[in-house]
Design brief:
Length: 345
């Protein structure tokens, strides 16, 4: 100890030693402290998003931990919701259309250069397992409870939200469930608020729409959508009342009502929205009694082309934004009370 005290000059310190102590206390430590705090703040969102989340759904509960990195979407429309949140699925389920990777134009910018694997047909549990997912999105997929149990052994799996059937969940419910599973609740809520604000603004701009009746119909088989379905819900969010006679024919979980060519009364509403997949003119020409409908005679029809129809069918925040841009002027022209007003296409 005596040697150490002597070597360290216990009674007095050299100027060089004093400078080193000053540099350590007043410069190095404060810098390191600020750097640590800064890095801690950067890491905070990741730490929060990594907290386990318990999601309640149709078949029970699913716990998701961390931030999923290999997401497989078995939902026919789930990839739209994922891409809107900046999540690139490693695989997605093809529905219809000839667009690259089954992603429609309104979401192509979000897809970017990514090349997800495309799944066609039914749910193949073995094929999903080979993809090594850490989250499986199954909303709007037709997933059975047996398939859910099998898929849950592979990775956390999200069937429809609690209380919903295969295709009855609203776009808000699906956005929230995916956002929570990904630890992106704030982003999901921001998207919901933005689209709901657009609906509210349109309602305010068109008070004459409020309370009028409307129907969304496939012309090929004359199938009218109820408010169980996303397309019927869309009309109500604009302020219309979905065709009362169609709703009266529907059961508690019926999303589409087939009508006879001989009686089109249930869809002869204040606004008639035709949804088409291929050739709109040919499909409408096959409806023999259409020229006798009040909606036809008074010019209250809107004919959605295949791309606009697909946007309403997906009803994700991305596709709804596109659909509202196009449909607002079309509907305004159709219900202005002047049969001679040309409805834009």
């Amino acid at each position: 100890m005596a040697n150490l005290q002597k070597a360290g000059h216990s009674v007095g310190r050299s100027p060089r030693c004093a400078l080193a102590i000053y540099f350590d206390i007043w410069i190095i430590k404060p810098v390191l402290t600020r750097l640590f705090c800064f890095l801690s703040c950067l890491c905070l969102p990741a730490m929060v998003s990594a907290e386990p989340r318990l999601l309640t759904h149709r078949y029970g509960q699913t716990e998701v931990s961390g931030t999923p990195e290999r997401v497989v979407s078995l939902s026919f429309i789930g990839h739209d919701f994922l891409l809107g949140l900046g999540v690139m699925p490693v695989a997605l389920r093809y529905w219809y259309g000839d667009h690259p990777f089954g992603v429609w134009p309104w979401a192509q910018h979000a897809l970017g250069d990514a090349e997800p694997q495309v799944i066609s047909g039914g749910i193949d549990v073995e094929a999903v397992a080979l993809l090594q997912p850490d989250l499986i999105v199954g909303q709007w997929s037709g997933m059975t409870e047996t398939e859910y149990r099998l898929l849950s052994r592979i990775a956390p799996t999200l069937p429809p939200p609690e209380g919903q059937s295969d295709y009855s969940a609203s776009w808000q419910q699906m956005t929230r469930q995916i956002g929570r599973a990904m630890g992106l609740e704030a982003q999901a809520e921001a998207q919901i608020a933005q689209i709901e604000a657009r609906f509210a603004a349109i309602q305010t701009a068109h008070p004459d729409w409020q309370g009028k009746t409307a129907a969304a119909v496939w012309p090929d088989q004359i199938g009218a959508y109820t408010t169980i379905d996303l397309r019927g819900q869309f009309l109500e969010q604009l302020g219309f009342v979905n065709a009362p006679e169609v709703e009266a024919l529907a059961g508690p979980r019926t999303y589409n009502i087939r009508l006879s060519q001989e009686d089109l009364t249930p869809i002869d509403t204040d606004l008639l929205l035709w949804l088409t997949v291929n050739d709109p003119a040919a499909a409408l020409a096959r409806i023999r009694l259409r020229p006798s409908m009040r909606a036809f005679v008074q010019g209250r029809e809107v004919v959605a082309d295949p791309e606009l129809t697909a946007a309403l069918s997906h009803s994700s925040p991305l596709s709804l934004s596109y659909a509202l841009d196009r449909l607002e002027p079309m509907i305004a022209a159709a219900v202005d009370g002047d049969p001679t007003t040309e409805v834009p296409q």
